[in-house]
Amino acid sequence: MSTPFQLLLPRQIYDEMVAQAQSEFPNECCGLLAGRIVEGAGRVEVRYPLVNELASPVEYQAAAEGLFRAAKDMRARGIQELAVYHSHPTSAPVPSPADLARNFLGEEVVYLIIGLGDAEPQVRGWWLGATGYREAGWEIID
Ligand SMILES: [Zn+2]
């Protein structure tokens, strides 16, 4: 298991991620965040919005084409995947049983969930393990 890091998310990328979740409402959105880990801090540099090919309000699956494009671009830039994100259009930003069941990346990346069930969007980050989940440390930076 890799050492968890503190995720640093530039405000503009945070705002764009939340805007994507709102624009794809009532369906779930998804995407990746990539950057570099330096001294325990994972600073996000690039956001890769992905297409939810299920176009569903209760589940998501990233279309393969966008995943391949993101992987290629990350290699070219010399950056790594730091977080995956998706939205919960009507429920709390807490991992669902389906999120835990399809957790194939392990504790390598932060799972950010954008909850749109309240008046204001709520974002929380999680480390998902084989037996459960725990809150991840992350912050917005200017
Ligand atoms: Zn979910």
CATH homology superfamily name: Cytidine Deaminase, domain 2
Strand ordering within the main sheet? 7-6-5-4-2-3-1-8
CATH class: Alpha Beta
Distance between the termini: 30 Å
Q: Which cofactor or ligand species appear?
A: zinc ion
**Residue share in β-strands:** 35-45%
The global form is globular
Low-confidence stretches: none
* Order of helical and strand elements: EHEEHEHEEEE
Helix content: 10-25%
> How many E-type strands?
8
Average pLDDT works out at 93
Largest sheet: 8 strands, mixed
In short:
By secondary structure, the chain is an alpha/beta fold.
Defining key terms:
single chain; 142 residues; alpha/beta; Cytidine Deaminase, domain 2; eight-stranded mixed β-sheet; 8 strands; 23% helix; globular; binds zinc ion
Describe the structure in your own words.
The protein has helices spanning 11-24, 64-77, 97-101; strands at residues 6-10, 30-38, 41-50, 80-88, 110-115, 122-128, 133-135, 138-141. By secondary structure, it is α/β, with parallel strands linked by helices. The protein has one domain (6-141): 3-Layer(aba) Sandwich (Cytidine Deaminase, domain 2). The protein has an 8-stranded mixed sheet with strand order 7-6-5-4-2-3-1-8. Strand 4, helix 3 (97-101) and strand 5 form a beta-alpha-beta unit. The mean pLDDT is 93. Bound molecules: zinc ion. Zinc ion binds at residues 86, 88, 96, 99, 113.
